[in-house]
Amino acid sequence: MRPNNAHLPKLTLDYPMSLGVFSEYEEAQRAVDYLSDHEFPVQQCMIVGTDLKQVERITGRLTWGRVLLGGLASGAWLGAFVGLIFSLFSNENGLSMILSTVLLGALFGAFWAAIGYAATRGRRDFTSVSQVVATKYEVLVEHKSVNQARELLSQMGGDAGRAALAAQETTYAPRDDGPQRTYSESLNDGRGGATAQPTPEGQQSRPATERRYGQYQQQPPQQPETPTQG
């Protein structure tokens, strides 16, 4: 049975175009917040983190003493919780029950931690924390409102304004097939597809290949007109 996600907002945009590429998430967030403060329909925006990488921060050296001490502490906390629950439904001395479960939990935690550390066979004698982060954050906006959003960000100044101007210059500049491509370009282009080109003022630009987040929708080819016999 598939989960019902009808109440969740869809992660889709119609013909997304780049509003700017930022090196920090806070900068992309500040740009969208600026648009919201100026009554821009921010429901047409999306922040996409690209060029993912995993960062692992080493926090210390791991020894048998630290392993056993950590197992004792975690087991003791678990034993205290179990003992407290049991004492609420027992007529016996609650304090003695809690102390006994704490002792048993500490021994079990130390034993389990020792087994886990022994299984590594000294190949990972350190502790660390890891996180997956993005290198760049691109703000996308639907093509029908991209000009309005860029005008607002150009008034903001700073990194957001420069990013909006750079995205506008990239959109209207001659394109090449170099390896450097933003998320919105790869989203709209497809393989050999055409991108949205600037049109006269007051008209909406639409790409030849309609692209939604996650699927292509190819327009059907037009049938040639057959000449009528006079």
UniProtKB/TrEMBL annotation:
Keywords: Membrane, Transmembrane, Transmembrane helix
InterPro entries with a match to the protein in the record: GSP17M-like_dom
Keyword Membrane recorded: yes
Composition bias type Polar residues, residue spans: 196-207
Transmembrane stretches, start-end: 67-89, 95-119
Biased composition, class Low complexity, residue ranges: 214-230
Region annotation Disordered: where it falls in the sequence: 170-230
Origin: domain of life: Bacteria
Pfam families hit by this protein: YflT
Residue ranges annotated for the General stress protein 17M-like domain, each copy included: 19-105
Protein name per its UniProtKB record: General stress protein 17M-like domain-containing protein
